[in-house]
Write a structure and sequence with these properties.
This protein has about 140 residues and is of the alpha+beta class. The chain has two helices and five strands. About 15% of the residues lie in helices and about 35% in strands.
Length: about 140
């Protein structure tokens, strides 16, 4: 399975601002959807974790945009995991257009928490879910 997930998107008019550029709200939703699609396809999405009383919580999100895509542009939100720790992951994103034009990049840190106690477990001797390192793409940016 590919370590890089590509999510094609067409910038719809109702997801743009007054300047006909993609809105920040829609960008944020696209990043979150890309992360979930990537995780779900690999067996560690929200529903998979909820079945065993865990879930993902977004801890940090940093976005750097060179420019926002315009209305009707075809773009891709790409995502990959940079690193996996015991209960945290570093996830990266790129927002690219035609001819791999880079619109911007994002980086996120996700924590896996226990639903019954609503916090990260600190007992390293317990049987936590471990994410497979085979899903890591050691690449900071796609280009």
């Amino acid at each position: 399975m590919q370590k890089l997930e590509r999510n094609p998107i067409i910038v719809d008019p109702f997801n743009t601002d007054f300047a006909k550029r993609w809105s920040w709200t829609t960008l944020g939703k696209a990043l979150l959807n890309a992360a979930e699609n990537h995780a779900k396809a690999r067996g560690f999405g929200m529903m998979n974790l909820n079945d065993v009383n865990y879930t993902w919580v977004l801890s940090r999100l940093t976005i750097e945009m060179e420019e926002m895509p315009s209305v009707y542009e075809k773009i891709e939100v790409c995502t990959w995991i940079e690193n996996i720790y015991r209960l945290f992951t570093n996830r990266n994103f790129s927002i690219v257009g035609a001819d791999d034009k880079a619109y911007g990049y994002a980086r996120s840190i996700w924590a896996m928490i226990s639903l019954p106690i609503w916090r990260v477990l600190k007992d390293t001797n317990s049987n936590h879910i471990l994410l497979p390192k085979s899903h890591v793409l050691l690449k900071n940016r796609v280009g």
